[in-house]
Amino acid sequence: MKLTRWVLGWCLVLGSLSAFAQEEANKNVLDRIIVKVDNYFILKSEVENQYQQYITSGQANTPNRCQILEGLVVNKLMLAKAEIDSVIVEDKRIEAELNSRMEQMEGQYGSAKNIVEAYGKSIATLKEDLRSSLKEQLTGRKMQDKITDDVKITPKEVAAFFNEIPRDSLPYLPAEVEISHIIRIAKPNKNQKEELYAKLLDFRRRVEKGESFEDLAKVHSEDLGSGKRGGDLGFAKRGAMVAPFEAAALRLKPNQMSDVVESEFGFHLIQLLEIRGQEYHARHILLRPDYQKLDLTEPTKFLDSIRVLVQRDSTTFEKAAKEFSEDKTTQDAGGVIMDATNGGNRLAYDGTMDPALFFALDSMKVGTISTPIPFRTDDGRSAVRILFFKAKHPPHFANLKDDYQKLSQITLSRKKNNAIEKWFMKAKDDVFIFIDEEFKDCKILEDVQQRE
Questions:
Q1: DSSP code for 257
Q2: Alpha-carbon distance 52 to 63, whole Å?
Q3: Helix/strand/coil for 427
Q4: pTM of the full predicted structure?
Q5: Residue that is last in its domain, among 382, 397, 412
Q6: How many structural domains comprise the chain?
Q7: Are residues 204 and 276 in the same domain?
Q8: Coiled coil: which residue ranges (predicted)?
Q9: Residue 318 and residue 343 in one domain
Q10: pLDDT tens, residue by residue, 223-246
Q11: Of 36, 143, 33, 100, which is closest to residue 265 (Cα–Cα)?
């Protein structure tokens, strides 16, 4: 049993929102500590919960409890060693990730109000609950990066790994597809804009009459990150904020307030606090339209016209995506949807695919463009997209030509595993580690060769 066989997934990928929800549910369950690594500990429920999640997911090669515990022990050892080696994650980084997580939750639940109702806690309390586990995840990832940063692979190593696989054991890969899309975000209509403008201008008048900008931001701002700090965004370097926001902020004098500013994130009332060289300090009140009520008519018409242009060969889908798509993650690549697990342009066409995408492709032929389809972005915004079904590859046994990207990722992971394995066997002597008698048979602390 290789020490890090099940480790990389936990160290490299930050914990999910569902895992956070599971942690919340477990706080009221009677539990006990089964491992201590210096000042860090592992509960028995952590092992059991991860094991049950694997079982219910129905995926192949489910790790056993010992393998799961190994991963947790390595994570805790990384945290302990990070303290010793002064590997620190800045508070700014933690706060930024917290804000990103809360925005994802808002997209999932529809609004901050729905989140509060679902968890029975305020947004501020939820963030504080998540902060410590998030800090551990980010610190563990930074420590792993330190261990594996110099690990690289060559095409020769990928070929060698592939040739090690017995011919009768080559994985049979599902059908794969290549897809591109063009996304247009639904915009608020005139009445919705006017309502948001009126609210922000009212806040502006109230501040001018003596009310606190900070207090209004705490109550009304829909920026989950800065709202609890009275809208304070801290110092930002020029170029860090979206252009409309920055342009408006830099036209102000200290303590001046802007008119209402519209950006891709919503509508802002901005107050400049200070300019210091190439940095500026501002705060804002952000209001967003109700994304559930946005009219999809305009983006639908726009994409329908783009579809006609491509079908008439007046432009290519790739050029249209680069010019018109509002999805920043795919725009520069001509709308190509990439596989997040390996960075390749082929997506598994099976049950792991997003159901909405799967069923849309099911009614399409290769080489065709879909009609405009309603779509919800990762941050919860209402949108419309058209899909280009570029290619479909049939199920096949893995080979170097077609599956090099996947094989290279596996080869790199194996090499990183080996690096962490060597690090673990050396680092375990630098800290105190206690493992409960119930799990002694896992032999986690024994030399790797003894366990194989």
A1: B
A2: 10
A3: helix
A4: 0.63
A5: 397
A6: 3
A7: yes
A8: none
A9: yes
A10: 877 888 899 988 888 888 889 999
A11: 100
